[in-house]
Specification:
The protein is an alpha/beta fold. The chain has two domains: 145 residues, Rossmann fold; 98 residues, predicted glycosyltransferase like domains (Thrombin, subunit H, Beta Barrel). The chain has eight helices and eleven strands. A six-stranded antiparallel barrel has the order 6-7-8-11-10-9. Strands 2-1-3-4-5 form a five-stranded parallel beta sheet, sandwiched between helices.
Amino acid sequence: MSEGESNTLSIEIQHLPMLVVESNPALQKAIVNALGGAGVKHCQAASNGAEAWQVWKNASGLGLVIASWSLPEMAGMELLKRLRGDKDSRLQPAFVMMTSEATPDALMQAMQAGADCFVVKPFPMGDLVSLVTEAVAHRKQVAGQDVFTESLLEAKELEASVRVQLLYDRSSELVECDSLSGTKCCVLTPHNFGLGSNISLRFGRRGVEPAQYYQNLKGIVTKMERVSGQPGMYRVHVQFSAPAQDEHGVKELLLSGGGA
C-alpha cells in the first residue's frame, strides 16, 4: 500500500455483509480479522464451498464474497458459477477469487465466470482494502451505478434503531420503525390505517428530537398486520411514493445501521 493510502474501507463498503471462504483456518482468520480492522461490520466465514453455498442461500443479501479457488466439497469456481447462475437472487455480490495458480488461463477462467477481482496467494493483508474496493467498484459498473448498493439495502432491509414521525389528516404520531429499505418501510403503530392511505414520514435516530428529524418522505400504505402479543398494535407497510433522496436520511440510517 502506497504512502498516504487509507487502510480503512469506505463507510458504504464497511456495511456490506461479507463472506470469506477459505479452508486454511489461519488464512481464513487473518482475512476476517483484516476486514474487521478495515471497518467491516458484518463478516461470516466458511471452510468449504458447500458450506458457503448454504450461507448464501440462507442470507438475505451478501455484498462481497472472498473465496479460494481450491476448496473441499465444492471448488471456488463452482461456487462462483452457482452464485452467478442463481436466478432467484435480487443481488449479485462482488466476488474476489483467491488462487495459488498464477496463470493467464486461471485468470481468464475466473473473469469469464464472473469474478470481479483475482488475487494470487499468499498476498499482504494490507492489500485487502484495495482488492475489496476494486471488486465492489467493478460490480457496481456491471450492475449500473448505485444499483448494487440500493439492491443490497433492499435485500437486507437492515433493521435500525430508527423512529418515525407519521403525519396524516392534520395529525402526527411518533412510532417505532420495524424495518427500512431504500424504497419502503414498516412501522409499528396503534393507528389502524386503511390500505391506500397517503402519509408522510420523517425519519430520525433514537434520542434525537423530532424537530431534528430528516425531511418529509411521502408514502402509501400497502399492507396492515396485527402485531402478535400486542393488542391494539399494527405493523404498517409503507411504500415510498418516490425514491428516497439524501435529504430524507434513509440511506444514511441504513448504512449506519441506525445506531445512535
